[in-house]
Write a structure and sequence with these properties.
252 residues, alpha+beta, Elongation Factor Tu (Ef-tu), domain 3, Threonyl-tRNA Synthetase, Chain A, domain 2, 2 domains, 4-stranded antiparallel sheet, 20% helix, 37% strand, binds zinc ion
């Protein structure tokens, strides 16, 4: 189904409460079906009033998992964010006509999600350490937390510094630094607009801010671990030149 048609599915539907923003460690939830559109066979597009499924966005891959509707299991293949609404693309194990108002129990694949949480937090720590070692703010151009995992920055980077960045990051990881979350209005956010991703922020009313220890505050809608210790060992694999910048590939 094309983007345009996904737009049809979410037309007039209330924006989804993104429950993972408030608790990244919850794995299952109850919700109500706000809209359901049959694709073909046992495949459906399902919109819920709230969800723990993080859609593919901000460089973080989609969560997968399952929904149980009327006792029937539906495998969630992917979650997509369309105009503030999360659309779950599911495949039922048995025939069922999914209807508005039905109750749903959802469970995410925690192993996969936790991996993304560790990688995502590592990416923020990497931003901080790249700035420390290069003595300048390196704006981020993008990132991918699937495979291969990388963060992309503006400007140039000397490979000889890679080992220093890795050592700094691993030192912060082993210190067990707290990773905090808060919510800020757009005006309050303006005061911290020197964050590495400041120029890539969406136009929304309330921003979620993530901060490792007393480092820079980062507006981010992704999922993170609570303590840097959970990241485990960070390995910087290599750098690569890209248009207007460079990538650092990493593993945790
Ligand atoms: Zn983040």
């Amino acid at each position: 189904m094309k983007k345009l048609e996904l737009g049809e599915i979410v037309k007039g539907v209330e924006q989804t409460k993104l429950s993972y923003l408030y608790d990244s460690y919850s794995t299952s939830f109850e919700a109500k079906v706000l809209n359901a559109v049959h694709e073909q066979g046992k495949s459906w597009y399902v919109v819920l009033d709230q969800t723990l499924f993080h859609p593919k966005s901000g460089g973080q891959p989609t969560d997968v998992g399952e929904l149980v509707i009327q006792g029937v299991k539906a495998n969630v293949k992917k979650a997509m964010l369309v105009n503030g609404v999360v659309v779950h693309y599911v495949k039922l194990e048995k025939e069922l006509k999914i209807e508005k108002g039905m109750s749903v129990r959802g469970t995410i694949d925690w192993g996969l999600r936790y991996k993304y949480m560790r990688r995502h937090t590592a990416a923020h720590l990497l931003d901080h350490c790249v700035n420390l070692v290069t003595h300048r703010i390196n704006k981020t151009l993008g990132s991918w937390l699937g495979e291969p995992t990388y963060v992309e920055y503006q400007g140039i980077f000397e490979d000889v510094l890679l080992k220093q960045v890795e050592e700094k990051a691993n030192a912060f990881i082993s210190q067990g630094l707290e990773v905090k979350t808060e919510f800020l209005s757009k005006d309050a956010l303006k005061e911290i607009l020197d964050s590495p991703n400041a120029e890539r922020l969406p136009e929304i009313q309330v921003y979620r801010i993530v901060q490792i220890d007393s480092f820079e505050k980062i507006p981010c809608g992704g999922t993170h671990v609570k303590n840097t210790k959970e990241i485990g060992a960070l390995t910087l694999k290599k750098t690569e030149k890209v248009e207007g910048g460079f990538r650092i590939y990493f593993e945790v």
